[in-house]
Design brief:
Layout (H helix, E strand, L loop, with lengths): L9 E6 L7 H12 L3 E4 L6 H11 L3 E5 L5 H14 L6 E5 L6 H10 L3 E3 L1 H20 L21 H12 L15 E6 L5 H15 L5 E7 L8 E3 L13 E7 L11 H10 L4 E5 L16 E6 L20 E4 L7 H16 L11 E3 L8 H18 L26 H36 L4 H17 L2 H18 L2 E6 L2 E6 L1 E3 L5 E3 L9 H9 L19
Parallel strand pairs: 1-2, 1-3, 2-8, 3-4, 4-5, 6-10, 6-11, 7-9, 7-10, 11-12, 12-13
Antiparallel strand pairs: 14-15, 16-17
Helix pairs in contact: 2-3, 3-4, 6-8, 11-12, 11-14, 13-14
């Protein structure tokens, strides 16, 4: 019978550092979500410090990690130690690594205080769902109250994020929280937009530039993701794209909507008030993906930004987007996609209509094209410049001097927009080459047959011999120069492989590469044994398709035989 948790269970999931195997943890966290858990997913190749910092900031009950990289004992022990040092030993640790983690190592980790390491035997006995239900059952504890955080925080954070996280948890659990009023004006930047537009990537770039420009300022990010109506679970996956938040002056908390028809959690106002009470200099609120009508974020922010992509459909669709009436800044992300410039022109026209800016110049409008995935993108630089200025204008808060240097233009990016399908071009070239090889091989086979027929006829029939010779000449002309050379020199190549050693010269020094080895019984075994093909077409395919050592074009500059 399926286990139903009595509390909202929050779990951090990740694959360990130096481990690119994320298939297992993805399966596990999906089952956890289906059981009603809220999953803060970090993805693969995550260090202990990243995982522990996330668990503390998110105030979770458990951590679930897969580790296939061989260093599991040190990895899990360090995780337990780091949690204990920071007064968060109540967070339970679960792990697995298939046959990588031996039974005796599992026992060592259990004795050290790791809650549970699941083995292949556990999988056979309990099944996937049984293991997940065991995790959720052990994590089904309430985290209300102020927490026993008597020891100093060892993570080097500018604020005690443990207490901030617990206050937000209390608010989510329906307890009354009365955060103190901030001592200064703290602006709130609201970021909303369609799902998949890259809001998290844009937010990460804004946080990075903010921390770089203002070395004495702090920032808090509240990110909201939707809960599933069917299960109540949620994937809080914004941290996968958020790399800049691993910083002493940054704090991030993920919230689930815990409702199926809203873009924000009902506890957003409490979370913002708590962050303000801790005197963070800027608070960013990122909503869940919204449609055309939602503008609820406006009730919680001082400055709003709408993030979209060039792929919104027909221009008439822009008239339905409610946020274009209110957004202080519009960001068209993924601007390297086809049709981006047309989209920019259409959005600017619609922005003018919505705001009555009939005489405004296009470049003066707060509508910016960005490529958040590109390093030091000039569009993101301009976006941040406009955002920081708009925040100062609307709130009176002065961050200080800031400037963004020149960077590479979009056309100078690693993969230009015109080449985004370069992999398709490569596969097309490979297919074309394979077709050419097949065509030339057929001609070579025909030539071999014609030569055999000519030898059989000999002088018996002069007219037939002449006809055959004419066909041989015609087919010979159909072979390209490379193919002719391969056919002509195949006997010589075969002899090279039959020698006792292959010799070649490097910097006036003769290198001898043995071509045979001796077995224990004294049998002479060739290192390279060529097929006994006689048909020229087969020989041609063998050589040109790269199946013969040193024969393919880019093999020739390698060390002979060692390819």
């Amino acid at each position: 019978m399926a286990y139903t948790p009595g509390n909202k269970v929050r779990i951090v999931t990740a694959a360990s550092l130096f481990d690119g195997h994320d298939a297992a943890i993805n399966i596990m966290r999906r089952i956890m979500q289906s059981k009603g858990a809220e999953i803060i997913h970090l993805g693969h190749n995550r260090s202990v410090k990243e995982i522990v910092e996330t668990a503390i900031e998110e105030d979770v009950q458990g951590i679930a990690v897969t580790s296939y990289q061989g260093g599991h004992i040190e990895f899990f022990k360090y995780m337990k130690d780091l949690l204990q040092e920071n007064g968060c030993g109540h967070i339970k640790i679960f792990g697995g690594g298939g046959g990588t983690i031996l039974p005796e190592e599992i026992e060592i980790l259990h004795q050290y205080g790791i809650t549970r390491i699941y083995s292949p035997d556990d999988g056979r006995k309990m099944g996937l769902e049984g293991m997940i239900e065991d995790v959720i059952r052990q994590c089904d504890i309430a985290l209300n109250g102020n927490g026993n955080f008597n020891t100093p925080l060892q993570l080097g954070e500018a604020r005690d994020v443990r207490k901030i996280a617990r206050l937000i948890t209390n608010a989510e659990n329906g307890l009354e929280v009365n955060p103190a009023a901030p001592a200064k004006t703290i602006p709130v930047l609201g970021i909303t937009g369609t799902g998949g537009a890259g809001k998290s990537s844009v937010t990460d770039e804004i946080v990075r530039r903010y921390l770089q420009q203002f070395s004495d300022k702090t920032i808090a990010v509240i990110s909201v993701d939707p809960s599933k109506k069917k299960t109540g679970g949620a994937l809080l996956g914004d941290r996968i794209r958020m790399n800049a938040i691993s910083h002493p002056r940054a704090y991030m908390r993920s919230l689930a909507t815990r409702d199926d028809n809203t873009a924000l959690s009902s506890h957003v106002s409490d979370a913002i008030a708590i962050c303000k009470s801790e005197n963070y200099d800027l608070v960013i609120l990122e909503s869940a993906g919204v449609g055309q009508s939602d503008a609820s974020i406006l009730d919680f922010c001082d400055v709003s930004m709408y993030v979209m992509t060039p792929e919104y459909g027909a221009a008439s669709q822009l008239e339905k987007i409610n946020m274009l009436d209110y957004a202080d800044v519009v960001c068209i992300n993924k601007f390297d996609k086809a049709g981006a410039l047309d989209a920019l022109a259409d959005v600017r026209k619609q922005y003018k209509r919505n705001h009555g800016l009939w005489t405004a110049q296009d470049n003066d409008l707060p509508v910016i094209g960005t490529v958040a995935s590109k390093f030091n993108d000039e569009g993101v630089n301009r976006l941040c410049d406009i955002l920081f200025k708009r925040i100062e204008e609307k709130t009176g808060v002065v961050f200080g001097e800031f400037s963004f240097g020149e960077t590479a233009k979009l056309s100078q990016s690693v993969i230009p927009a015109a080449r985004v399908r370069y992999l398709s071009e490569i596969t097309a070239q490979v297919r074309e080459y394979a077709n050419q090889v097949d065509e030339q091989a057929q001609i070579a086979s025909r030539l071999y047959q014609l030569h055999g027929a000519l030898e059989a006829v000999g002088d018996k029939d002069g007219s037939t011999a002449a006809t055959l010779q004419k066909l041989i000449d015609e087919n010979w002309e159909l072979l390209n120069p490379v193919s002719r050379k391969l056919v002509q020199h195949w006997p010589e190549k075969k002899k090279e492989y039959e020698k006792d050693a292959y010799e070649y010269t490097v910097r006036e020094k003769v290198i001898s590469q043995p071509m045979y080895t001796r077995s224990l019984s004294g049998t002479r075994i060739p290192k390279v044994l060529l097929p006994t093909y006689k048909d020229w077409g087969d020989l041609f395919t063998l050589a040109v398709a790269g199946k013969c050592a040193r024969s393919f074009s880019f093999h020739r500059r390698c060390i002979p035989i060692k390819t």
